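Think of the structure tokens as a kind of shorthand, similar to the way a musician reads notation: each symbol stands for something richer, in this case the local conformation of the backbone. In the example below we present two proteins back to back. Begin with the first one, reading the sequence and then the tokens, and try to describe in your own words what changes along the chain.
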Amino acid sequence: MKHLLFNLLIVLLILLAATTQAAEPPTAPMLRLETGFHTATIRRIATDAQGRWLATASEDKTLRLWDLGKDIRDTEKPNLLRTFRLPSGPGNEGKLNAVAMDPAGEWLATGGWTDVWGGSTTAIYILDRATGQMRQRIEGLGNVINHLCVSRDGQWLAAVLGGGKGLRVYAVKQGFRQVLSDRNYDGKDSYGCAFSPDSRSLVTTCDDGQIRRYSVEGRMNTASFRKEQQAATQGGKEPFAVAFHPAGDRLAVGFQDSTAVSVLDARQLTQLYAVDTEGIDNGNISIVTWSADGSFLFAGGLYDDGSGNNPVLRWANKGRGQRISWQAADTSVMDFAPC
């Protein structure tokens, strides 16, 4: 019996040592080559409200900040201002899936497979846009951060997560105080979130096929979000990206398992109409956005038009009109709703 207890004690000590070691940051040197551009897939982009700066988050484990200039039509290419390198390690550790920018351009939020070694699984990093310094780290999100979005008034930051960990919402002006945690996402990944133009509503997507809508209640110092509506999507089983129309009355939804694009009523989450995707029979059209004036709906994804390219598609008349494959060289530069 003594030998058995001794052996069990040894096993427990080994497990404890392994757990402690796993919670420590990696210390092994990592070779980094500064190329001046990304060397892996760019997962997300974000801009400030005036379009002065562009932030790009990548699987190459860097966040890059670019100067778009006063008028991007007068600039051959953006000017790289800063490269942010978060704590990283082997494998996924340090890969960035998400970025959001304060509408005023004062701070950036980024995340992905961040702080895995810290025991909290993932963390959101709040970075100062002007100095590059870290302002804050929001810990304990529980799974990979797939997307971040910020309200137009700069009051709210939302994060959607993998593994069914759902949604978190933070009050920016109160030191990023958490005001909502919804973990009821049926064990599925969530990849999309968007705030309404008036910053009073938030919608999310999830691989469980559901769209969820939340609304602000209460005054600013004590305000919180509550879920008001949830509905199954039409057109695909895995809604990915979602975007509010500038008028706030409808939503565009793209799917990662389908070439469909749906436009929904923003309050009831019922389908208003399906966008014309006839003849698009491969890949997906998972990313959606509106022009700033709301006249055009744009979308893109893994759809290949047969030329080896993945075109950006454009529909007139709020998505009801004719579809064309849009390229910047074909027309003048257009304004888009903020990223």
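Once you have a description of the first chain, move to the second and do the same.
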Amino acid sequence: MAMRIEAITTMHTLERLRQAWDAVYDSDGEAQFFLSWPWMSNRLRSLSTPWIVLAARAEADPAPCVAFLPLSIRTLRNGDGPQRELRTAGSPVADYTGFICRPEHEGPALAAFAEALRRLRQRLLWNRLNLAGLRTSERRLQPFLSAFARAGFELTGRRGDNGDGVDNAVCPYVALPGDWDGYLAAAVGASTRQRIRRFLRRIEGSRELSITEARPETIEADIEALLRMWQTQWAERKQGGAERIRVQTSAMLMRCFEDGSLFLPTLRWNGTPVGALAILVDPVKRSYLFYIGGRDPSFTSLPPGFCLHAFAIRHAIERGFATYDFLRGDEPYKFLFGAQRHPIRTIIVRARTERMAGIAHAPSTAALGLDPK
């Protein structure tokens, strides 16, 4: 089936497609939280660079959209001169990126997206398509990439090792059963099961220890406490970028809370936060996604992160969710909770003509050379 591709560059136009976006997301078995309307629409609004969303419509039925691909546009500078990059719009904030598509249209729609990007190369003057953090099946990826496997483009992959032995191309997740006792019996080892039960009993039977959940009247303080602990742990490793990450993450978490998609439990010792987790909640796909955590390194009475993950997994099971997703990174502690491995990948599509003489900065959306939609 032939596809018609529209290029959308304004929120006003995109907002008119909210219902279609939600319908595609609901139908897509491979869709994930970072491509949901609440998260992606807020992401696009927050971008300081231009963006473009490709929308596919089946020509035989022009009313509904059947697929969406959001991309950001930026200009990079290196020794070869300025280069324009199209990048999956969620990256680097989103752990997963890609496209959403109705399953019955996936082959034609994704091939049409690739052909549209090839045609748009002369208008957008892009040199590089950075498909960072793709979580998609090989069945879907091949129709998209095959359009670039021709003269004029080269495809390369990128490894996920972050330099300290953690592979960020592995995303551990736990498939949750219908009840907590069943999870403990089937998913974790005997030692971990005993630790989970012992630590949760200790917290729930203690006067000094408690776990609180963020509420509207506490959310600002709870986010601030979480990110303060995170920054204490990671500031040195982030080499000056910790404050920028803290500010951006604070704004993103607040937006998620306002949308009803943030669960933030905090472990407290005599009322003082000693550990916290920010967990993104996707009721459509029935998934909890652990996004960021922090702990007070001076608190050694019990492991805050371990306790909070156990608490959050129980919380998810009790509410009928199907997945607890640890997102990027194969840190060993995640597998104590019975996690399985899910790979993601980063693919770079380069146009063989690399130089971009005369391009001084990223274009405004008005200068993209696209008809407004």
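Compare your description with these statements about the second chain. Confidence is low (pLDDT under 50) at residues 354-373.
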